[in-house]
From TrEMBL:
Its main location: membrane. This is O-antigen ligase-related domain-containing protein. It is a multi-pass membrane protein. It is found in: Membrane. The keyword Coiled coil does not apply. It comes from Rhodoplanes serenus. The keyword Transmembrane applies. Keywords: Membrane, Transmembrane, Transmembrane helix. The chain crosses the membrane at residues 35-55, 67-85, 97-117, 124-146, 177-194, 200-217, 243-262, 319-340, 352-371, 377-396.
């Protein structure tokens, strides 16, 4: 019974079922309940199922020592401590933050363990996730396109927003980041994990839908992240796939350049980013050690007169909200996640975690802040790529253990961990 419920197929279904309501409904409660009563128990059962395998047991023991996971824990605790130290922090808020801390850590750990121990999980979860997010994006695009303005100049303010999904995070910049991350996952899965023509077709259709939706959001940071991820993916593939990815990227760029949208993106340049960053650096300097906490209103007016409430940079936002500890932890998450994902690719594993991390990191360093929430948009957009990167770290360590110990150990789907589990 435990082995059946801990199978990769069940875990992938639980994963997609849990994250699906974030894009297919406008309710946050469903994802929260499903995480607690479906995904988390299935991930635990998966851990039990692989514990009998020597390499699987090693991966389980390695999980608490994951550098990425430790950095995630440090980041969350730094934000929570900073919030608790504010004189106006209600006890109920701190209790909620601690609860969400544990849930986020559990989600990252579950994603890492499932990713590192089953190629089947990674393939099916990527396929299902791409399908549900693309379905949500298709509905949003279908509702949005009839509002096309007659005046071409008005296109610059014509930005896709979500009417379905992304509850509380439905604005263009937010959904653009999600579409970009899942777009990178879909293309990487199509190039390296898909087994059948049907899977390739689903992923290809999802890629087209997500690319259109991403362009319509006019979210430049996510678009840049997706392009960087595609470039990295192309570098890891055969000449044929490299040409296909390059052609897709060039087509996307050509469409942008040929429209008023692309011209506007170029003209807007850095969009006040230097002013934003220097202004929030000054704000961080007022409380450099502990920060301002997650609940404090940090709206500032930059010299250009624009009022903003976040630093548009993940590391700087960590510094402002959680102090030096949070900033260092976030830097370790990003650098460590990228480094382990690169090591996985060099060892012959899937580039999917790397593509997700590149997209998230590029977008996150020019926009966004990452706060402590229940299952919501940040989980799908940020904690998912981080969990995949932690899985890459576990996979690399497990592969090293396999080579150091027995080379002829029989493998099962649950026990075939690490590089072999994530191989193309």
């Amino acid at each position: 019974m435990v082995r059946a419920l801990g199978r990769a197929e069940v875990a992938a279904a639980a994963f997609v079922l849990t994250l699906g309501p974030l894009v297919l409904t406008n309710d946050l409660n469903a994802a929260h309940v499903l995480f607690a009563f479906v995904l988390l128990p299935v991930a635990v059962l998966h851990g039990v199922a692989i514990a009998a395998d020597p390499v699987g047991a090693t991966t389980l023991r390695r999980l608490p020592r994951s550098i990425v996971l430790i950095a995630v824990t440090a980041y969350l605790l730094a934000l929570t401590l900073a919030s608790a130290m504010q004189p106006d922090a209600p006890p109920r808020l701190i209790r909620r933050l601690l609860q969400f801390d544990l849930e986020i850590i559990a989600f990252v750990a579950a994603t890492a363990l499932l990713t590192a121990t089953s190629r089947q999980f990674l393939r099916l979860a990527s396929l299902g996730l791409a399908a549900v997010v693309a379905a949500s994006a298709l509905v949003n695009v279908a509702v949005f396109l009839p509002t096309l303005p007659a005046d071409a100049a008005a296109l610059l303010g014509w930005r896709l927003m979500a009417v379905l999904g992304m509850p509380e995070y439905a604005n263009s910049t937010n959904i653009g980041a999600t579409y970009a991350v899942v777009l990178a996952i879909a293309v990487a899965a199509m190039a390296t994990l898909a087994r059948t023509r049907a899977e390739v077709t689903v992923l290809a259709v999802a890629t087209v839908i997500l690319a259109v939706a991403l362009v319509l959001t006019q979210a430049r940071g996510p678009a840049a992240g997706a392009v960087c991820a595609l470039a990295a993916l192309a570098a890891t593939q055969s000449h044929r796939i490299r040409l296909a990815v390059a052609a897709g990227g060039l087509l996307l760029v050509a469409v942008l350049v040929a429209t008023p949208l692309g011209q506007d993106w170029i003209e807007r340049g850095m969009s006040y980013r230097p002013e934003v960053w220097t202004t929030f650096l000054a704000k961080a300097a007022e409380r450099p050690l502990l920060g301002w906490g997650v609940h404090t209103d940090l709206t500032v007016t930059i010299p250009s007169g624009l009022a903003l409430d976040q630093a548009h940079n993940l590391v700087l936002s960590g510094l402002v909200r959680g102090g030096a500890g949070a900033a260092v932890a976030m830097a370790v998450i990003l650098v460590g996640g990228l480094a382990w994902s690169i090591r996985l690719v060099r060892a012959g594993g899937s580039p999917l975690p790397l593509c997700a991390m590149i997209t998230m990191t590029v977008a996150g360093m020019v926009d966004y802040n990452l706060l402590i929430t229940r299952p919501a948009w940040p989980w799908l957009t940020f904690w998912l790529p981080i969990g995949l990167a932690a899985g890459a770290e576990l996979a690399v360590h497990a592969d090293r253990h396999r080579h150091d110990d027995e080379h002829d150990e029989p493998e099962t789907d649950e026990g075939a961990v690490a590089i072999r589990a994530l191989q193309r």
